[in-house]
């Protein structure tokens, strides 16, 4: 009985403490001149953020439920380990838990470590210093600026990709001049320039060839690009100012100072941690109501060799890590922070997350991606992970939507300035969404990125809103992509187009099993350098796209279903429909185009391709000859003027165009707006007579050279090269040998075929004359066919 009363008294006491704490605020101060034996008050601040966190945790465990503030004063705080916040540290809607800089002080959460070094000359230009045991150097900073790991070719900020590349980067003759390249890194683009690969050297052979491991950073494997490649972490390549090399065996750091730089006046730091803050909970017990405000996150380690987890049949692999990682959280906020000089991702929302807000942040100079929002593949029904994979129909789970809640939903990414990302990894985006639902990406400014500004990796589970963003200078180092890009290789997807045609004809409802909610893309300004401003690629389904201003690359819809596109302005370009399905139910109407539709292998035109506005009569007639655009109209060339990104129509024009209003796009924060490098609005270039591509006849087939990025993309080719089979007559002997319309001839008798002219030359030189072995590209795979040369 006594124990029972004691227990009851304890419960009442905790309840009383909790009641009395409601509405209160407890503050714990952190200062560079503090001491971890202090109590954390303003007068007796603590020395480290981790110490303040432990004080707050002890307070929570005592039953305190009021507001908690970790207030960090100005300073550069080196973290020995990440700050991990768990569910028991959570706040509440009325009483949040806030980690913030005091009065907008310059507060750095530094994932690096200070290096105490005694420098001495090594050569006339290079210095060296002994590094303490236990220190590893993958990134080096001097006076808070990143330095360059010794590399070939040398770094040149004006060159893309990689700020310098060389076909002979790993040529055996060059390799022979290196004493010990073990541990060096080879970076290269994908053969098709669809992102990049990264490898580490594990062995040097006597003939100068290298043994490499890695190359898992792209989910569409290929050889590394023959030209776009470089190597770093080679001592013999330490030959340029600001380069460094760390000899791990001898524990010696070498550095080549730039002109006028006194090495004894430099503060050196090495990246140490991959992660600075993690919010870690789960669906049944989430972390909630924690806010991180006004902090500068810097100097995380590169993680490119760990990027290996494949996403759903997209071209991506990922590494679930970032300077801030959030998993199993609800109602948390990342507000007004700065992320820069990071080796990996800036932010990663992984698996179950709800109502997370990421707003008013500056994210720049990032080795990988800026904001990744990625769910758990186990939440997906019948998932497949490679382009060529599929689940047989009789084994497929046909229930719509997810099978668990282990994915991000209802989150907001707004008013962030994202630039200069993907400095190391190239298959990255300003905002990447995969296996997520109803994510709002609004009023962000994104530019200077190697691939997409915004990417949606799959159709699971739609409902996103992409609006009021300003996205430009994109796809700078890769190709065949978009300022906005998406894939939709969902459950209905099959790598063989004929089989996929039969699946979608018999089971039209399957296309919406994963893309269960429409995604809206509206009121954005997009610009792409090596692709399309808006690129809905393989299978992207259930989109509504309206009121966007596209500045250079136009809008592409590859095979997919239920896309409604209207009230968009496509400057200096137009509409790119590629390889559509029968009964796609696509609609493209009431848009302004400045080129004829650049269709590729289109036999079916969806529900509506009509009522669009053209700038010249020749463009309109070219499309009407295809049996579409019977209600299309031509505008007077003086009707439209471009001024600071807004269109000001005048004259007699359709009502939708007269009412069109492009609101302010991009970040709205005055502080961030002042940092933005404005996008140049292009001058209008009216198309001349529509270009007609030359065709060739061979064995009762019609062939044409691959000449455009669109044709390359439609066929999935690694480059603009080869001969497209545009048509085959029924009496052609090629049909019996298996050649199909849509195939691309890329080789003959073991020789590369670039154009029809090279093909003819190979045929004429063939021995024996009557047998040809054609290498073709079909369903994005190579095949060999033996053909009689008649």
Which SSEs are present, and which pair or pack?
Blueprint: H1 2-21, E1 25-30, H2 49-61, E2 67-72, E3 75-78, E4 83-85, E5 97-101, E6 107-110, E7 112-115, E8 120-121, E9 127-130, E10 140-142, E11 145-146, E12 148-149, E13 151-152, H3 172-175, E14 185-190, E15 196-204, E16 210-214, E17 224-232, E18 243-247, E19 252-255, E20 268-271, E21 277-280, E22 287-288, E23 290-293, E24 296-298, E25 309-310, E26 317-318, E27 324-330, E28 333-335, E29 338-342, E30 347-354, E31 357-359, E32 362-366, E33 371-374, E34 408-409, E35 412-414, E36 417-419, E37 431-434, E38 440-442, E39 445-447, E40 454-456, E41 465-467, E42 470-474, E43 481-486, H4 497-506, E44 519-522, E45 525-528, E46 531-536, E47 543-546, E48 549-550, E49 555-557, E50 563-566, E51 569-570, E52 575-577, E53 587-589, E54 608-610, E55 613-614, H5 617-624, E56 633-634, E57 642-643, E58 646-647, H6 655-658, H7 670-673, E59 695-698, E60 701-705, H8 709-715, E61 723-728, H9 733-736, E62 744-748, E63 751-752, H10 756-765, E64 771-778, E65 781-788
Parallel strand pairs: 1-2, 2-5, 3-6, 4-21, 5-23, 6-24, 12-18, 21-27, 22-27, 23-28, 24-29, 27-30, 28-31, 29-32, 30-33, 30-34, 31-35, 32-36, 33-37, 35-38, 36-39, 37-40, 38-41, 39-42, 40-43, 41-44, 42-45, 43-46, 44-47, 45-48, 46-49, 47-50, 48-51, 49-52, 50-53, 53-54, 55-56
Antiparallel strand pairs: 7-20, 8-9, 9-19, 10-11, 10-20, 13-17, 14-15, 14-17, 15-16, 18-19, 25-26, 57-58, 59-60, 60-61, 61-62, 62-63, 62-64, 64-65
């Amino acid at each position: 009985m006594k124990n029972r009363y004691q227990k009851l008294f304890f419960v009442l006491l905790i309840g009383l403490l909790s009641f009395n704490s409601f509405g209160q605020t407890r503050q714990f101060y952190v200062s560079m001149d503090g001491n971890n034996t202090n109590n954390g008050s303003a007068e007796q601040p603590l020395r480290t953020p981790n110490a303040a966190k432990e004080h707050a945790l002890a307070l929570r465990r005592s039953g305190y439920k009021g507001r908690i503030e970790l207030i960090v004063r100005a300073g550069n705080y080196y973290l020995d380990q990440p700050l991990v916040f768990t569910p028991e540290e959570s706040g509440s809607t009325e009483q949040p838990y806030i980690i913030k800089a005091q009065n907008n002080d310059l507060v750095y959460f530094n994932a690096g470590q200070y290096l105490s070094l005694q420098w001495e000359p090594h050569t006339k230009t290079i210095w060296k210093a002994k590094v303490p045991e236990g220190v590893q150097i993958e990134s080096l900073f001097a006076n808070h600026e990143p330095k360059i790991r010794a590399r070939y070719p040398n770094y040149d900020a004006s060159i893309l990709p990689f700020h310098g590349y060389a076909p002979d980067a790993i040529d055996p003759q060059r390799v022979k001049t290196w004493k010990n390249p073990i541990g060096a890194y080879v970076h290269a683009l994908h053969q098709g320039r669809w992102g990049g690969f990264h490898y580490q050297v594990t062995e040097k052979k006597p003939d100068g060839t290298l043994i490499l491991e890695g190359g898992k950073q792209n989910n569409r494997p290929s050889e590394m690009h023959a030209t776009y490649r470089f190597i770093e972490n080679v001592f013999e390549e330490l030959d340029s100012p600001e380069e460094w090399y760390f000899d791990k065996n001898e524990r010696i750091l070498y550095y080549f100072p730039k002109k006028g730089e006194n090495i004894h006046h430099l503060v050196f730091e090495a990246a140490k941690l991959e992660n600075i803050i993690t919010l870690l909970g789960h669906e049944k017990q989430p972390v909630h109501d924690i806010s991180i405000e006004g902090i500068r996150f810097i100097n995380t380690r590169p993680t490119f060799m760990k990027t290996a987890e494949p996403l759903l049949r997209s071209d991506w692999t990922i590494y679930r890590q970032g300077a801030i990682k959030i998993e199993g959280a609800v109602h948390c906020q990342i507000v007004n922070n700065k992320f820069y000089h990071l080796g990996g991702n800036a932010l990663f929302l992984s698996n179950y997350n709800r109502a997370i807000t990421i707003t008013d942040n500056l994210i720049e100079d990032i080795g990988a991606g800026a904001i990744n929002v990625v769910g758990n593949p186990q939440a997906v029904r019948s998932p497949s992970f490679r382009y060529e994979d599929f689940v047989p129909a009789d084994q497929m789970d046909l229930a719509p939507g997810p099978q668990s809640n282990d994915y991000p939903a209802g989150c907001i990414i707004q008013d962030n300035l994202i630039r200069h990302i993907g400095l190391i990894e190239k298959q990255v985006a300003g905002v990447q969404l995969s296996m997520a639902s109803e994510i709002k990406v609004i009023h962000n400014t994104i530019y200077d990125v190697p691939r997409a500004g915004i990417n949606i990796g799959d159709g699971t589970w739609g409902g996103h809103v992409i609006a009021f963003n300003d996205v430009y200078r994109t796809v700078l180092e890769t190709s065949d992509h978009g300022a906005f890009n998406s894939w939709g290789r969902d459950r209905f997807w099959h790598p063989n187009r004929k089989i996929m045609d039969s699946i979608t004809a018999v089971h039209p409802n399957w296309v919406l099993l994963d893309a269960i909610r429409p995604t809206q893309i509206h009121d954005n300004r997009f610009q792409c350098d090596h692709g399309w401003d808006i690129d809905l690629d393989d299978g992207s389904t259930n989109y509504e796209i309206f009121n966007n201003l596209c500045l250079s690359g136009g809008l592409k819809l590859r095979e997919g279903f239920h896309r409604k596109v209207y009230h968009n302005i496509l400057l200096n370009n137009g509409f790119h429909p590629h390889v559509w399905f029968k009964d796609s139910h696509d609609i493209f109407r009431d848009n302004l185009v400045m080129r004829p539709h650049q269709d590729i292998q289109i036999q079916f035109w969806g529900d509506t391709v009509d009522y669009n506005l053209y700038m010249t009569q020749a463009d309109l007639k070219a499309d009407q000859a295809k049996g579409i655009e019977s209600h299309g109209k031509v505008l007077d060339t003086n009707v439209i003027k471009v001024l600071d990104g807004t269109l000001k129509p005048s004259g007699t024009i359709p009502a939708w165009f007269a009412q069109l209003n492009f609101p302010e796009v991009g970040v709205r924060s005055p502080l961030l707006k002042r940092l933005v490098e404005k996008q140049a609005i292009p001058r209008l270039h009216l198309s001349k007579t529509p270009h007609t591509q030359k065709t060739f006849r061979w064995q009762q087939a019609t062939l044409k050279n691959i000449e455009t990025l669109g044709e390359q993309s439609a066929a999935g080719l690694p480059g603009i090269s080869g001969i497209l089979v545009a048509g085959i007559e029924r009496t052609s002997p090629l049909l019996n040998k298996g050649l199909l319309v849509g195939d691309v001839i890329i080789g003959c008798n073991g020789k590369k075929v670039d154009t029809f002219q090279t093909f003819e030359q190979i045929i004429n030189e063939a021995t024996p004359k009557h047998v040809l072995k054609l290498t073709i590209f079909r369903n994005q795979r190579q095949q060999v066919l033996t053909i009689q040369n008649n």
